[in-house]
């Protein structure tokens, strides 16, 4: 087998399903705009408050609405046409972004408006992401699910690689209003990808949204030990190993370079995601997904600890500023973050495939809702951990301590679950 065929990403899902290809392209373009807004809101709040804790509270403020939206959105996806549910969620996120741009252009924005609209966007995206992910197994064969997850890693890598870097430069060169406006334009592509999908009602027994549907989903999750374990591993990694809330302060105080450094650091994670997806040919054919997740999470913890070590070195260097950044230190920090992005992406490929292959279609929306809460909620709790601990200690301490905690806790959890370590993609069991 040649290197190109054996190691490069498998494009089969794009060829076998035009509907999946359109949704993939629309999600990627809209995702770039969404990342513009994420980094811009962080910089906007930091400019208004000059507080890393206030930046971390953006993520925390959206946690409860995102949890509620993820749970209820999953129930909607298991009861109604998933195409329609995804379109409504995209419309809400679009309207909130339009309002964010309007308030900024009219100079009537406040920190409370930034928090509130971030909460609405997070909730709408939670519903939309859960629904779109539940749609994928209906568009492609089961043996192409891992390849589809790797393609989503490519899309995510591009969005986070391009969005934050461009966002940081746009804020520095043009201001906040133009950056939000560009997101509004890019979000229109999401509607094209969703509008052209066929009607996609859930298969199997349908439970109307409400308490009975929620209880039904939780009962299934109680029996699904493999799904629970991947949730626990991801929560561990994101709670103690997510330094995103530190980036604005790092660009201003420790590494220098200001908003541009903030964007570059965020993009570095995506570079690792993109490269690992590009060379995922062998990864998607590895059948022991439980072991793959556990090892990838430990590798993620090691990369975050390395990032913390790089920041510790910066403490002993002369002070940096926006115009006199520590270039070598920024490069080393980006390398560590790229390694973390690669490790997290490998874990994500196996986690997504496990969710889509092992969970029945009629239950997939609710479980995807919980999955999105874990994936998106973990970093928000991690933002609180990093922001609070950095405020009490120093910017280098949360990632250094957190990386070692991730390594140890992931090893312990995997050891306690032999069934998870034995999970076989050829015989998927929840």
TrEMBL record:
Regarding the membrane, this protein is recorded as:
Multi-pass membrane protein
Name the keywords, alphabetized: Cell membrane, Membrane, Transmembrane, Transmembrane helix, Transport
Pfam families, per the entry: MFS_3
Task: Give start and end of each Major facilitator superfamily (MFS) profile domain.
Answer: 19-426
SUPFAM superfamilies, A to Z? MFS general substrate transporter
Where is the major localization of this protein? membrane
**Name of protein:** MFS transporter
């Amino acid at each position: 087998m040649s290197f190109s065929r054996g190691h490069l990403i498998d494009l089969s899902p794009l060829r076998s399903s035009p509907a999946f290809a359109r949704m993939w392209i629309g999600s990627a373009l809209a995702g770039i705009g969404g990342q513009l807004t994420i980094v811009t809101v962080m910089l906007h709040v930091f400019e208004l408050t000059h507080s890393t804790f206030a930046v971390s509270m953006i993520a925390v403020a959206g946690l409860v609405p995102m949890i509620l939206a993820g749970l209820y959105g999953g129930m909607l996806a298991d009861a109604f046409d998933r195409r329609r549910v995804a379109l409504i969620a995209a419309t809400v996120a679009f309207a909130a972004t339009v309002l964010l741009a309007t308030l900024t252009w009219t100079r009537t924005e406040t920190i409370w408006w930034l928090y509130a609209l971030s909460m609405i966007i997070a909730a709408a995206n939670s519903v939309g992401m859960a629904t779109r992910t539940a749609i994928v197994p209906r568009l492609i064969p089961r043996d192409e699910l891992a390849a589809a997850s790797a393609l989503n890693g490519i899309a995510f890598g591009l969005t986070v690689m391009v969005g934050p870097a461009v966002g940081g430069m746009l804020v520095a060169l043009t201001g906040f209003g133009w950056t939000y406006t560009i997101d509004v334009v890019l979000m229109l592509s999401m509607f094209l990808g969703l509008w052209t999908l066929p009607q996609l009602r859930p298969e199997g027994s349908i439970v109307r949204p409400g308490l009975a549907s929620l209880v039904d989903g939780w009962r299934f999750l109680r029996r699904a030990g493999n799904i629970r374990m991947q949730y626990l591993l991801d929560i561990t990694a994101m709670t103690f190993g997510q330094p995103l809330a530190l980036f604005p302060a790092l660009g201003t105080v420790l590494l220098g370079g200001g908003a541009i450094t903030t964007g570059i650091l965020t993009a570095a994670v995506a570079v690792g995601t993109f490269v690992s997806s590009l060379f995922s040919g062998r990864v998607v054919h590895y059948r022991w997904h439980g072991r793959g997740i556990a090892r990838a999470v430990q590798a993620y913890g090691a990369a975050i600890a390395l990032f913390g070590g790089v920041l510790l070195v910066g403490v002993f260097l002369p002070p940096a500023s926006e115009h006199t950044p520590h270039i070598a230190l920024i490069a080393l920090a980006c390398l560590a973050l790229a390694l973390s992005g690669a490790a997290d992406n490998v874990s994500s490929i196996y986690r997504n495939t496990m969710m889509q292959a092992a969970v029945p279609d009629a239950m997939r929306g609710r479980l995807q809702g919980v999955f999105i809460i874990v994936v998106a909620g973990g970093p928000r709790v991690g933002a609180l951990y990093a922001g609070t601990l950095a405020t009490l200690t120093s910017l280098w301490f949360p990632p250094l301590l957190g990386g070692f905690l991730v390594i140890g806790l992931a090893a312990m959890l995997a050891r306690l679950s032999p069934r998870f370590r034995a999970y076989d993609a050829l015989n998927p069991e929840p």
